[in-house]
Amino acid sequence: MSNHTLIRLAELIRIRRAERRCRWRRLDASRQALLVLAHLRNGDTYARLAVGFHVGTSTVWRHVCEAVDLTTARSTGLIDVLTAAEVKTFADKG
C-alpha cells in the first residue's frame, strides 16, 4: 500500500479522535493506521500484531474495527455519487 494511504487513514483516525475528544490511546493515529494496514494487506493475525505493536489483542481488534468503520462510512458517500453518475449517464443515452 502506498504511503498516501497510510497518511490518509491516520488523518481520518486523528479527526475521529478529536471529534470524540479522546485523551489517551496506547498507539498514536499513525501507528494505529500502520497496524490496520498490516492486518488488511498482509492478513496478520491479531495476536501477531499485538506482539509486534506491544498492545493486547483486544486493542488490536478495537483499532481494526474503528478504522474499518471510518473507511466504510466514507465509502458510502462515494457509492452514492457513483450510482447517481451511472443513472445520469444511462438517462443521457436513453
Key phrases:
about 90 residues; mainly alpha; about 80% helix
Explain how this protein is built.
- The chain has helices at 3-20, 29-42, 46-53, 57-93.
- With 94 residues, it is an all-alpha fold.
- It has one domain.
- α1 packs across α4 and α2 crosses α4.
- The chain starts with a helix and ends with a helix.
- The mean pLDDT is 82.
Q: Got a strand count?
A: 0
Can you tell me the overall shape? globular
Cα gyration radius (Å) = 17 Å
Outline the low-pLDDT stretches.
none
Tally the helices: what do you get? Answer: 4
Kindly report the average pLDDT value: 82
Helices and strands: which structural class? mainly alpha
Q: Percentage of helical residues?
A: over 70%
- How many structural domains in the coordinates? 1
| Biggest β-sheet description | none
Ends apart, CA distance between termini: 40 Å
Order of helices and strands: HHHH
Instruction: Assess the beta-strand content as a share of residues.
Output: under 5%
Summed up:
By secondary structure, this protein is mainly α. 82% of the residues lie in helices and 0% in strands. It has one domain.
Secondary-structure blueprint of this entry?
Layout: H1 3-20, H2 29-42, H3 46-53, H4 57-93
Helix pairs in contact: 1-2, 1-4, 2-4, 3-4
